[in-house]
Amino acid sequence: MTLEFFKYQGTGNDFVLIDDRNETFPASDQALVERLCDRRFGIGADGLILLRNDPQYHFRMVYFNADGAEGSMCGNGGRCIVRFAHDLGLFERETRFLAVDGEHIAFVTEETVSLKMSDVTGIDNRGGLTFLNTGSPHVVQFVDDLESLDVVKEGRAIRYDARFQPGGTNVNFVQPIDGGTLFVRTYERGVEDETYSCGTGVTAVALVAHQQLNMPDPVLIKTLGGNLRVSFNAKTQEQFDSIHLIGPAKRVFAGTITV
Ligand SMILES: N[C@H](CCC[C@H](N)C(=O)O)C(=O)O
């Protein structure tokens, strides 16, 4: 079988995008998705995303982590599929689409995609670790020297910690740069490695920084792959709506692969 694919990236979080409006992609073949995402034996990506039709929306997003399993919400992937749908001509400036965590609205400009994220209803303390769900589960931990932190080692220990079983969690390490800017590095579940950026992760970080450091809206985030902005409305200290993740998302290349 020959597959046509597109490669997109949003602040270095990279994805294989497939136009699957005719629903021919074998989505239950986990080994195939894993192989397509493999950086040596496949195309290489942090995840794979199918663009499918939906009767009530411009499109539906189906997201798989690099391990081939269907994942929870992916913020950078969401921004990339919005750019993809725009490149396919499915909408002009504003879109409504469906993802695993429900409806999303997004706006595109030449440079950026602004994606409305799900509302956040709580921030927990799990035995000393700050945990919240922004569409995907995230731990947020402040550290002093993020540059030299072993993110894979420290992140993996928390990802598999008993407090977050059975699903596990993504893990974000954060160091404030100034009163409105944070440096973030993320260990991603399902990729089982550090990625260059994680959209639901930096969203979680911004909300926690508002709660714990009084950081005002919007929060600016620096990741290994570039800069993002998170804007939000704080209803209480741990409830947020009108959350938007804003930053670049670009097509890198297109290709065909025989599988
Ligand atoms: N990179 C993604 C997160 C994917 C979530 C995934 N790692 C999981 O929790 O299963 C993002 O930009 O939000």
Automatic annotation (TrEMBL):
Q: Name one GO cellular component term.
A: cytosol
Q: In which pathway does it act?
A: Amino-acid biosynthesis; L-lysine biosynthesis via DAP pathway; DL-2,6-diaminopimelate from LL-2,6-diaminopimelate: step 1/1
Q: Describe the family membership recorded for this protein in Swiss-Prot or TrEMBL.
A: Belongs to the diaminopimelate epimerase family.
Q: What is its EC number?
A: 5.1.1.7
User: Where found, per UniProt?
Assistant: Cytoplasm
NCBIfam families, per the entry:
DapF
Record field: catalytic activity: (2S,6S)-2,6-diaminopimelate = meso-2,6-diaminopimelate
| Official protein name in the record | Diaminopimelate epimerase
Q: Which PANTHER family match?
A: DIAMINOPIMELATE EPIMERASE (PTHR31689:SF0), DIAMINOPIMELATE EPIMERASE, CHLOROPLASTIC (PTHR31689)
Q: Which positions does UniProt annotate for substrate binding?
A: N13, N65, G75, N76, N170, E188, R189, G199, T200
Q: Where is this site: Could be important to modulate the pK values of the two catalytic cysteine residues?
A: H138, E188
The record's note on quaternary structure and interaction partners says:
Homodimer.
Q: Which GO terms describe its molecular function?
A: diaminopimelate epimerase activity
Q: Which UniProt keywords apply?
A: Amino-acid biosynthesis, Cytoplasm, Isomerase, Lysine biosynthesis
Q: Which residues form the active site?
A: C74 (proton donor), C198 (proton acceptor)
Q: Which GO terms describe its biological process?
A: lysine biosynthetic process via diaminopimelate
Main localization (coarse): cytoplasm
